[in-house]
């Protein structure tokens, strides 16, 4: 799922049905679902099988409104915040400052993955660096303020919750620094190529850059 | 539930107002793109959620507790890390499991490793959200970058608890 569509509006159809139903990851998930479902049906019985489907669909229904809102928020962020701004604060040149900022924002982002992942997608489209995104996600999961307030304080007690918080502070930095040593993803390679081609011919258009050798 | 809607809701209103002031067309374009993205991602998430639910039914839970006691050292921390990583579901599922683990005699550093493993690996969340939205390559990068985090958190907990006076055994 890449999201170049947000800026280039108009050319793209409202809903890409092929992408929704026929893309590889959907098919792989469907295969896993079928295999695991068959195993549950055989070993645990029909009751557990249908009960699982029901509870997962109810779960899906319960977070659908949050997710719709999150996608809207993400689209607004993409439209409002300039690429230069993201690139400057969270891009490749931002370095440790970007990692620290991303960790801070990740920690205060409340809500589940249906809120945080659309935000990460928007940041990625806007030119945020890999280390910033890894720091953001690690911080959101290990230092998440909301999770600590709602779950850990009441269930583990303040002392244990504070120890866990304390030992987790270095984690986003460690993950972000390790991530810088790993090979580039295809998407990052495309971005890099596009940036190089765009830099090659001066004021030219940014977007159609990849086409000419 | 209501609280969960509050944050994105307030954010949407504020950002929507700012965008509207710049140009009303911007809001319409954002709504359009959000709706398209949302509809495209939903079938994937539905299929992935059900798949994860089935997997959760197949993997046992409380058996692990006895193996990750305070004296279980390196083995216990690694076991807790993996058990955490394969624990499906959100906090509603996981924190009850944590209580079961503590009752079954798990050590706190091991529980920290478990919670960190669940937080950073979360197979369930990767399958449902990260891979569909960010691509498997980014997921792989993030996963590899996070491999050492749960043991680090576990050993830091041992260190902190040693400083505080509660002394769990190491190795």
Description:
Chain A is built from twelve helices and no strands. The two termini of chain A are 25 Å apart. Chain B is mainly alpha-helical and 171 residues long. The longest helix of chain B is centred in the N-terminal third of the chain and has 35 residues. Chains A and B meet through helix 2, helix 3, helix 4, helix 7 and helix 8 of A and helix 1, helix 2, helix 4, helix 5 and helix 6 of B.
Any descriptors?
heterodimer, A: 213 residues, mainly alpha, 12 helices, 0% strand, disordered N terminus, disordered C terminus, B: mainly alpha, 78% helix
Q: Quick recap of the structure?
A:
Chain A is mainly alpha-helical and 213 residues long.
As an assembly, this protein is: heterodimer
Mean pLDDT of chain A: 79
Query: What's the pLDDT, averaged over the residues of chain B?
Result: 83
**Helix/strand-derived class of chain B?**
mainly alpha
Number of strands of chain A: 0
Number of helices in the DSSP assignment of chain B: 8
Topology order of chain A in helix (H) and strand (E) letters: HHHHHHHHHHHH
Assess the beta-strand content of chain B as a share of residues. Answer: under 5%
Radius of gyration of chain B: 20 Å
Topology diagram in text:
The complex is a heterodimer of chains A (213) and B (171).
Chain A (H helix, E strand, L loop, with lengths): L4 H4 L8 H5 L2 H21 L1 H35 L2 H8 L4 H14 L4 H13 L4 H13 L2 H12 L1 H11 L2 H9 L6 H15 L13
Helix pairs in contact in A: 3-4, 4-7, 6-8, 7-8, 8-11, 9-10
Chain B lengths: L1 H21 L1 H35 L14 H13 L5 H13 L4 H13 L2 H12 L1 H11 L2 H16 L7
Helix pairs in contact in B: 1-2, 2-6, 3-5, 3-8, 4-5, 5-8, 6-7
């Amino acid at each position: 799922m890449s999201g170049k569509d947000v800026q280039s509006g108009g050319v793209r159809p409202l809903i890409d049905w092929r992408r929704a139903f026929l893309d590889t990851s959907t098919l792989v998930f469907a295969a896993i679902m079928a295999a695991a479902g068959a195993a549950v049906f055989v070993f645990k019985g029909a009751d557990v099988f249908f009960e699982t489907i029901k509870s997962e669909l109810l779960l899906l229904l319960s977070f659908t409104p949050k997710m719709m809102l999150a996608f809207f928020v993400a689209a607004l962020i993409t439209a409002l915040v300039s690429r230069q701004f993201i690139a400057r604060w969270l891009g490749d040149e931002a370095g440790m400052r970007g990692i620290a900022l991303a960790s801070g924002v990740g920690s205060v982002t409340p809500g589940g993955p249906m809120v945080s992942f659309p935000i990460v997608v928007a940041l990625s489209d806007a030119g945020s660096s890999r280390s910033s995104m890894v720091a953001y996600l690690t911080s959101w999961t290990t230092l998440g303020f909301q999770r600590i307030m709602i779950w850990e304080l009441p269930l583990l007690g303040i002392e244990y919750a504070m120890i866990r918080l304390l030992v987790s502070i270095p984690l986003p930095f460690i993950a972000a620094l390790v991530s810088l040593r790993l090979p580039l993803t295809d998407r990052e390679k495309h971005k890099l190529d596009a940036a190089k081609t765009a830099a090659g011919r001066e004021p030219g258009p940014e977007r159609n850059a990849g086409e000419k050798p | 539930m209501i609280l969960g809607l509050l944050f994105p809701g307030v954010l949407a209103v504020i950002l929507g107002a700012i965008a509207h002031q710049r140009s009303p067309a911007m809001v319409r374009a954002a709504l359009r793109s959000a709706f398209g993205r949302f509809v495209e991602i939903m079938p994937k998430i539905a299929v992935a959620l059900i798949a994860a639910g089935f997997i959760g039914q197949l993997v046992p839970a409380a058996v692990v507790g006895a193996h990750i006691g305070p004296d279980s050292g390196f083995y216990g921390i690694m076991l807790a890390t993996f058990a955490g990583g394969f624990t499906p579901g959100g906090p509603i599922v996981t924190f009850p499991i944590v209580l079961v683990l503590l009752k079954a005699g798990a050590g706190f550093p091991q529980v920290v490793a478990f919670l960190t493993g669940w937080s950073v690996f979360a197979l369930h969340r990767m399958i449902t959200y990260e891979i569909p939205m960010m691509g498997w390559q980014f997921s792989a990068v993030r996963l590899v970058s996070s491999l050492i985090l749960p043991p680090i958190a576990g050993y830091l907990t041992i260190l902190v608890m040693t400083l505080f006076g509660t002394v769990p055994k190491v190795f």
